[in-house]
Amino acid sequence: MTTQRITLTVNGMTHAIEVEPRRTLADTLRDQCGLTGTHLGCEHGVCGACTVIVDNQPVRSCLMFGIQAEGRSIRTVEGLADGATLSPLQQSFWDHHGLQCGFCTPGFLMLATWLLERETPIDEAELRHVLSSNLCRCTGYQNILKAVREAAKGLGKWVESAPA
Amino acid sequence: MNWTGKRLPRLEDPALLRGEGSYTADIAIGARAVRLVRSPFASGRIISITPPAEMSAGALLVTGRDLAGLGTIRPTLARFNYVAIGQPILPVERVHFVGQAVAAVIADTPERAEDLAEQVMLDIDPEDAVADLDAAMAPGAPVLHPEAPGNVLVEGQLRQSGCDAAFAGAAHVVELGIRSRRQNATPMEGRGGCATFDRATGRVRLTASCQMPHMLRTGIAELLGMPEADLQVVAPDVGGGFGQKMALFPEYPLLVWLARKYRGSFAWIEDRNENLIASAHSRDQRHVIRGAFDADGTLRGLEVDILSNVGAFSCYPVTCGVEPLMAFAEYPGPYKVPAYAARARGITTNTCVMAPYRGVSRPAITFGMERLMDRAAAQLGIDRVALRRRNLVDSFPCRTAMGMTLDDASYIEAMDRAIDAADLPAFRARQAAARVEGRYLGLGFAVFNERTGYGTPAFAARSMGIVPGYEVVDIAMTPLGEIEARIGASPHGQGLRTALAQLIADRLGVTPDAVRIIHGDTDRTPYGWGTFASRGMVIAGGACQIAADKLADRLRVLAARMLQADPAGIVLRDGQAFAGEASMPLAELARLAHQRSDLFGSDVADRRFNLADTASYDPGGTFSNACHLAEVEVDVETGLVRIARYLVVEDAGRLINPMIADGQVHGGVAQGIANALFEEIIYAEDGNILTGSLADYLPPTAAEIPDIEIIHLETISDASITGAKGLGEGGAIGAPAAIGNAISDALAPFGVDITELPATPARIRALLRGREPTP
């Protein structure tokens, strides 16, 4: 299988690598950029564990080829913290027990990071709708929802739903 | 400072949140990739396996013939007419289920290994398969294993003397048949392993996503006929397990064999399809339950017939008896059953192997018992709560029909708390109003107990060839004053590092972050069993507590020498040893103990030169209990169930970290809801599996799981030295019964109730078709 030289920009750093065109972005990030925080849970685009942010959109990195990401801005879980300081969302996951085994966590963090960076305020229905993109098997989602909700409140992005 | 009982954020989390966890697939990068070629047939004779026409340089094909002379995975049980059958690492003659590994292809990258695996030509002569209980038990059915004519691998039978009289004299006999369909535990991280040969020592390190690293090491070494001491098994960060990762799977000995033979590093990382079809399945059971009741609702006798589809082989080490025999032993649950009769059989079929999954048989038996109670209440015209109150065990200790001792618990109190919180009269009013509008609300609850934290006595009673149970902890204080506790148990995401550190911190007067819990590495930890059967906090926790107390005693002796005081008067607190007003830092004491042992010499009787001790704990077991309550709305047009409210009142004794405890309950309930409504592994009649992706097999998302309310009760039992009872599984146990009862309550006007799980829209529509509600 022939390979192609590409340059990927991940978390603001450039990676000059040689990849097979068929290699997924997830495998490229993991195997060739050394960024193993992005996890593969199904490789079918269902579970969302491999979610990363590409040009400000959440993306299943198992459904995109590495070469398709050239020239784009890729963000992974490794880029969330500022040095020793966790991002407010990461801190909220820690404070509210939003993770157990930790395998789905990077995908949820990237999905929710995207959610919290949007201009639009978030209510309960939108929160559930967006987070239902990803699967978690440990938490029953309770504390993931809580962690994102509390982070949104802290960032002034939360609105209470209109009473039914 | 008292750390026990605090909602301490987990010590595990920062690395996991930063994406700096270390899972098996992360460690496997760079190893040669192993891809398994799996059987497309449920049953058949292997004629030939032909390698690809062009193997790339360095690529390999390994078949069962290459493994000639190696053992089979063959767990044993000395009772219950158990038939021991062996599962080959790779079969030579026959395949027994779709997904069974028949060959392995090795290449330099996973992509190339997959390419080559697709080109391997399997010539298999298919034979008739039996994929379900009925087919396997039919007269003249194909026999999977010649040792087991009739396809029965294990059978327990019991009929207590009073049973006939209880049924003969019963005012009412209530009967119920239930069916629990097959599930897959579906950890987010599948199985996987990486075996690396160390040329300098001749040893192999197997990193594997597993729950029982020590057992895995013993099992693999035995199969391969290699010295166990030449194998190190490491469980790194493990992305969930829920029981599925307890078993010794054929892929792991294969990896170790490859590493030794080719003196290299070989990795297999399971994909989701493999996990769904070829890891382990659970919960495929059918029960018939009969209860003999007096006119006043007193249960006089219980009779159950349990069938469990255990798949093609017997899981190691717990055997295929794990589901049927648990149901056999524990069916009466929290109820007084004066006379009990049970028959339980494990039936082999051409399907994936059964292994334990969170709760094992208890979700099904609780569904059976609690549906029986609701049916009995309806049949006898007695209120559901009153009927249960009459029959629940209410004085402790209580010896069960099967000879187990129920320790202090809160069966009735948990039910009462749930019923109070539910506000039944208000619900009945809402239900009646909704029915007028053609909307069907239902409320159901389930009361159960769960045997947790049991050590070797309980496993020995099952007569397993391998008897798990105890846990050992080696504790030490370094010369610089940190505490290391090496535990034989191996967590897979529960947060044991944090909770055990809390326990130890309190005994030694330090902060939890001064305690390192070392686990999941057979080179660095004492032999132990693992995390399963809701045992971690009880058994590893108990061992940690004993070990910490021993270390504390030692520190007190040394401090007494330095502070010229009586050891009994030394208090360990805030990282210091106090004798009245005088004190010294524990770190200073640790340094002196190691580096100035000359100071202690003759004053310390045993002349020990280190600050280390070991402890073990092997309790007989305790019983957690809970009441789950669900309120649902059933759309009778579509059969869709919406959960409007979910409440858990649970009693797991003393909570070491209530935040972690809540998380365990949440996760268990979500899996129980999945069991009740969504998840089902489906086989076609020919044994082909129809649910091989997450588009077909349906774990619920945040949209399906409602808010889960939890009320904790804390009954402290002396059956656990920490006061903690196990709670890892309880969430999954109560939900199917509570939801099944809630749907049945909603559909009562139609004269139908739920006896089969998951209660999918199709099943509910099938029940309702052609029926009209009676007002």
Automatic annotation (TrEMBL), chain A:
Keyword Glycoprotein attached: no
Keywords: 2Fe-2S, Iron, Iron-sulfur, Metal-binding, Oxidoreductase
SUPFAM superfamilies listed in its UniProt record: 2Fe-2S ferredoxin-like, CO dehydrogenase ISP C-domain like
CDD domains: fer2 (cd00207)
Domain 2Fe-2S ferredoxin-type: 4-80
Entry superkingdom: Bacteria
InterPro entries (alphabetical): 2Fe-2S-bd (IPR002888), 2Fe-2S-bd_dom_sf (IPR036884), 2Fe-2S_ferredoxin-like_sf (IPR036010), 2Fe-2S_ferredoxin-type (IPR001041), 2Fe2S_fd_BS (IPR006058), Beta-grasp_dom_sf (IPR012675), Diverse_Oxidoreductases (IPR051452)
Keyword Metal-binding: yes
Pfam family, one: Fer2_2
Protein name: (2Fe-2S)-binding protein
Species of the source: Roseomonas alba
UniProtKB/TrEMBL annotation, chain B:
Any one Pfam family match given in the protein's UniProt record, by short name: MoCoBD_2
Bilayer-spanning residue ranges: none
Keywords: Molybdenum, Oxidoreductase
Aldehyde oxidase/xanthine dehydrogenase a/b hammerhead domain residues: 18-128
SMART domains xref list: Ald_Xan_dh_C
PANTHER family: ALDEHYDE OXIDASE 1-RELATED, XANTHINE DEHYDROGENASE
Listed name of the protein: Xanthine dehydrogenase family protein molybdopterin-binding subunit
